[in-house]
Write a structure and sequence with these properties.
Elements: H1 34-49, E1 54-56, E2 66-72, E3 78-89, E4 98-104, E5 112-118, E6 120-126, E7 132-138, H2 139-152, H3 163-176
Antiparallel strand pairs: 1-2, 2-3, 3-6, 4-5, 6-7
The structure holds zinc ion.
């Protein structure tokens, strides 16, 4: 990246599930301008403050098809980037392997459930300058690329869980919700003791 957009941003409050912007399709990015790059910087700052590995624009209340990620793959190699107007492809049903691992979401903090997803994903789109990008992910990165692209289509991972898992997820979230201030991560997570 000619200009490192992963630093210098402002931490924004993270939008929670139930907010309409999180459950509707987003507008495609058409202007690759300074406003977009400011949004991307702020998204990186917010993701870092929340100790996340990916963040979609809807998670800071913006209905634009863009996400950022900084996430290890199956070889523990951390990949970082921005994808505008993402499309994800996963292997065809017959030769794909599913990875069953715990998944969580910064917009539903404190809760994790096992969700099976293809263990390999290719995400294509554009970077913050409008140049084509292609990110190939294995391990957690494969999951992240699918999770963030879902967000931009108005899908949260709870939508992909069974009724039973979703109920467990919501119970877990309710137990820990008091640790996350409304404007988290602008105000840090409270400690359990506090
Ligand atoms: Zn999420």
């Amino acid at each position: 990246m000619a200009d490192d957009l992963s630093t210098g941003g402002t931490v924004l409050p993270i939008t929670r599930w139930g907010t309409p912007v999180m459950h509707a399709a987003t507008r495609p990015v058409t202007e690759f301008d300074d406003a977009l790059r400011t949004l991307v910087r702020d998204m990186f700052a917010t993701m870092h403050a929340a100790h996340g590995v990916g963040l979609a624009a809807t998670q800071v209340g913006v209905d634009l098809a863009v996400f950022v990620f900084e996430c290890p793959d199956a070889d523990e190699l951390v990949q970082r980037g921005v994808v505008c107007n993402p499309r994800v492809t996963v292997p065809e049903t017959r030769d794909r392997a599913l990875d069953s691992a715990e998944e969580g979401c910064l917009s539903y903090p404190g809760a994790y459930q096992v969700l099976a997803r293809p263990d390999h994903a290719v995400c294509t789109g554009q970077d913050a300058q409008g140049n084509p990008v292609r990110v190939e992910g294995t391990g957690l990165l494969a999951r992240c690329l699918q999770h963030e692209t879902d967000h931009l289509g108005g899908i949260v991972f709870g939508d992909r869980l069974s009724t039973r898992s979703r109920r467990l997820l919501s119970r877990q979230h309710e137990e820990l919700a008091h640790l996350y201030p409304d404007d988290w991560p602008v105000t840090p997570r409270r400690t359990s003791a506090g």
